[in-house]
Design brief:
By secondary structure, the chain is an alpha/beta fold. It is built from 22 helices and 31 strands. The structure holds adenosine-5'-diphosphate and zinc ion (2 copies).
């Protein structure tokens, strides 16, 4: 009996979200191993797929694999990783597999020089005989045989050109068992980087750093999987701790993965890693072209690079022996992918590390509330770095109440204090960062006299003004009320405004006030081109500009000694997003952006402008008091039943007509049994009802344990998939969502 193989078809449909059994023709039996990309007959079609390390189900009738297209592309561990992601996030298996494949493969990119060779299987005399048999019937096959008799083996391309013959003639000879064909892979490795001889020596660790390092090294040296939360204020030397753990992993013959939220934003970090580890570092970032990315991937796969530095997707790097995985700024939402598969790199890191007996370090000055909660429960071991290196003070944060500015007649977006401090900074020849988190969404409604923000009574979230219908709507649960022009709190009827100002306006205003200042802007618009971010950051860090204006891109990673002032134009923008994580994101942003200043000899300060100076996120940021923030936020989460006190699954339907989206979710809902312990909210319109011509509705599933309902959801989804496909609709599932907009 022919050998069987389990094949995963390269097609994202619910009908193909499983493996199929194929037979392996004898001619392929040596090459057909798991990991190979293959060509297969599928119904009336010819498709591609991957042989996977699963037991093929024996069946009555199996069709043979038609061709092997590549060598093995993934390991068993990679396949298990893909399975884990597919199971955890309810995505298609093939989508999850793409994550671990060599970059570009699924888009048909030829990433290595795959040369197909052809040789005779028959002895020369037999080949001569066959040629004379075929002489009249199949001249092309005869030409192939004679060409091979003269010179063998030949590359397929060369052979068909020399013969000349069509591919079908070659296939006929293969089917006869007269010739054989195989692939040899010649990786297109670019010239490797020169091996540096001088590597930077690590500094002597501070006492705090040594104390944090010890338990990590201990777990590492005993090959024990252990999880650490490294809670260290900005500039406390967390990165140095990572570097030393990595060095220890290298000494063991293992390697490590270091994730950063957005590698383009951290050229300084990149340099630091390369200075320390030279060509052992592979950097995976979005600025790489496909082939460069593949090149780095290959250096990792072949063991030349054992330290991987990269953004979210670097968690899938083909590093064989992992000693440590680091998530720097672990609270960053960039670790969660916003499209399918909607995985969180932290969860993937924990899974991989547990399989490898590796340590995980989650590092942050402002850990996610979920993470800190898990540390409190003992899931993570908490390590702290409470002080900055060299006892540099944390920046002094001054809060400006913008209501008072308005009362005093200052209508500028810059408070008087910020104007004074900016001027001082410019005169002293130092640098400033101005931060405004305006990504072009939601305005909110605010009373400029008393600071009241319209909020949903059920969710404690800001309501958004909808001009059509003139209503204030909760983007989370659908609650709504008529728009008002008289403040329900203070009764003022001429202070209600919706707030709106972006980074460009900040630049224009700054230009007007300080015509001499050199200003750079860093936001999604200015960094659209590959490499642009790098250029702006490098230019600013060299002192080629006085002021850097930007969105949250300026809050991450920058370590520039000459920056002594940070201006936060409006802390209210993130605070009032209709999102259960708004308070957490605000605190984190404020703390991070303030942390960009005073990293050199000169102490830094931050000026924080807000209409709600009494909010706990803002007060805690002023005092750099994570604990105060955490306690209050945790209470709020407990009260409104948000994570970590509940798990959430967000199911959405997208359709061209609003009622289609709603009806699909109602169909789905009917398939889900009601349970005491789980609450299902909706169907309700998504906060952004219409995006890209699609109407979006959603279901929110909440409960302490969602295992059972998740399985039921997985079973129900294919049933509604067919119906939604007919009407051009789509259903998405987000497990543990971080984005509600
Ligand atoms: P974090 O990652 O917590 O922001 P870093 O590791 O970047 O902190 O350290 C902040 C600064 O202090 C960096 O410029 C770094 O080179 C320096 N530094 C870190 N550890 C030490 C040390 N043990 N001795 C001297 N300088 C250090
Ligand atoms: Zn008011
Ligand atoms: Zn609500």
């Amino acid at each position: 009996m022919a050998k069987l193989a389990a094949v995963l078809v390269d097609l994202i449909t619910s009908a193909t979200n499983k493996t199929f059994t194929y037979s392996i023709p004898n001619t392929m039996k040596d090459q057909a191993v798991y990991g190979c990309k293959v060509q297969i007959p599928f119904g009336p079609r010819t498709l591609t797929g991957y042989i996977v390390p699963e037991k093929p189900e024996p069946r009555e009738e199996v069709r043979p694999i038609s061709a092997i297209l590549t060598n093995s592309l993934f390991t068993r561990e990679a396949w298990e990783l893909a399975r884990f992601v597919a199971d955890k996030y309810l995505c298609h298996l093939v989508e999850a597999l793409y994550l671990v494949l060599p970059p570009g493969i699924n888009r048909g990119l030829s990433v290595d020089r795959r040369v197909r060779y052809v040789d005779l299987l028959l002895a020369e005399q037999e080949a001569q005989n066959l040629a004379s048999q075929l002489a009249n019937r199949a001249p092309a096959q005869v030409r192939i045989l004679f060409t091979l008799l003269q010179q063998r083996p030949l590359t397929r391309q060369h052979l068909l050109k020399q013969a000349p013959a069509a591919a079908s003639s070659l296939q006929a000879l293969i089917d006869r068992g007269a010739v054989t064909t195989w692939i040899e892979t010649e990786p297109l490795l670019m010239e490797s980087k020169p091996v540096e001889t001088i590597k930077e020596q690590p500094p002597l660790l501070t006492e705090d750093q040594s104390r944090a390092l010890q338990p990590v090294l201990k777990a590492l040296s005993s090959y024990r999987h252990e999880r650490f939360l490294l809670h260290g204020v900005t500039g406390s030397g967390k990165t140095e701790v990572y570097l030393q753990v990595l060095a220890a992993a290298l000494r063991q013959g293992r390697g490590g993965i270091v994730l950063v939220p957005e590698i383009a934003l951290t050229p300084q970090m990149r340099e630091r890693f390369v200075r320390r580890f030279g060509s052992k570092v592979a950097v995976l970032h979005s600025g790489l072209r496909d082939r460069e990315r593949y090149n780095e991937w290959l250096r990792i796969e072949q063991g030349q690079a054992r330290i991987v530095l990269g953004a979210r997707s670097a968690i899938y790097a083909p590093l064989k022996s992992i000693g440590v995985i680091v998530l720097d700024e672990e609270h960053e939402t960039a670790y969660k992918q916003e499209e399918s598969p909607r995985y969180h790199a932290r969860e993937v890191a924990l899974w991989r590390a547990s399989k490898q007996g590796a340590v995980v370090i989650l590092g942050s000055a402002t850990p996610a509330v979920d993470t800190y909660y898990r540390a409190q429960k003992g899931d993570y071991r908490l390590l702290t770095l409470p002080r900055r290196i060299a006892h540099r003070p944390l920046p002094q944060v001054k809060i400006v109440d913008m209501r008072a500015e308005l009362l005093a007649g200052n209508r500028s977006i810059f408070s008087r204090l910020l104007q004074v401090e900016l001027k001082k900074t410019l005169v002293a020849g130092r640098q400033a960062i101005l931060f405004l988190n305006r990504r072009g969404y939601s305005t909110f409604v605010l009373c400029r006299r008393c600071g009241l923000v319209a909020k949903c009574p059920h969710c404690d979230l800001a309501l958004t003004l909808h001009k059509v219908g003139r209503r204030l709507i909760c983007h989370y649960c659908g609650y709504n009320e008529p728009q008002y022009h008289t403040c329900p709190d203070c009764g003022s009827n001429h202070h209600i405004r919706d707030f709106g100002c972006g980074t460009q306006r900040v630049v224009a205003e700054a230009n007007r006030l300080w015509p001499q200042a050199r200003i750079l802007r860093l936001d999604a618009d200015t960094s659209a081109r590959v490499g642009a971010t790098d250029k702006i950051i490098t230019s600013f860090s060299r002192g080629e500009a006085d002021i850097l204006v930007g969105t949250q891109m300026v809050t991450k990673g920058l370590d520039i000694a000459r920056v002594t002032l940070v201006g936060i134009i409006s802390a209210d923008l993130t605070l009032n997003l209709p999102d259960p994580y708004a308070a957490e994101r605000t605190f984190q942003l404020l703390e991070q952006v303030a942390g960009r200043t005073g990293r050199g000899e000169v102490p830094g300060q931050a000026v924080l402008q807000t209409y709600t100076p009494d909010h706990f996120s803002i007060k805690a940021a002023k005092q750099h008091n994570y604990q105060a923030f955490y306690q209050q936020e945790l209470e709020r989460r407990r009260r409104y039943l948000y994570p970590p006190f509940t798990r959430i699954i967000l199911v959405r339907a997208l359709a061209a007509a609003e009622k289609t989206a709603a009806s699909i979710l109602n169909q789905l809902l009917a398939l889900l049994p009601t349970e005491e312990a789980t609450r299902i909210e909706g169907p309700a319109p998504c906060p952004f009802l219409k995006v890209g011509d699609k109407f979006r509705w959603q279901l929110i599933i909440k409960g302490a344990n969602l295992k059972k309902i998740k399985n039921q959801l997985a079973a129900a989804l294919p049933q509604v998939a067919a119906a939604s496909q007919r009407v051009g609709a789509r259903v998405t599932v987000d497990i543990d969502p971080l984005f509600y907009l």
